[in-house]
Amino acid sequence: MIDTPLNGRRVSLEKSFRLTANADLQKNIVAYLKVLRSQRYSKLLSPDNTDNVDRLIGELRMVQKLLDVLELGSEPLSDNLLMSQAS
Description:
By secondary structure, the chain is mainly α. It has a domain at about 20-70. About 60% of the residues lie in helices and about 10% in strands. It has 4 helices and 2 strands. It has a two-stranded antiparallel sheet. Strand 1 and strand 2 (about 10) form a beta hairpin. Helix 2 (about 25-45) packs antiparallel against helix 3 (about 55-70). It is elongated and about 40 Å long. It starts with a strand and ends with a helix. The relative contact order is 0.16.
């Protein structure tokens, strides 16, 4: 799990994305991750790039996880919910 500092506490990267209240920022992040995912799939399917397949699969899993978190219609976490999950 990747951790990132947020307000002096450590929370998962997924939770920090959920805390993003700005819908435009969320849309931009989703668009960026979709492009990144498509580029990684192209590299993964390339026959001359068999050395990095495991690393690419790991990156794709992380991108997919972030896209799942940022799915349209997802509700941002409230501070109370975040604090209860952190303990």
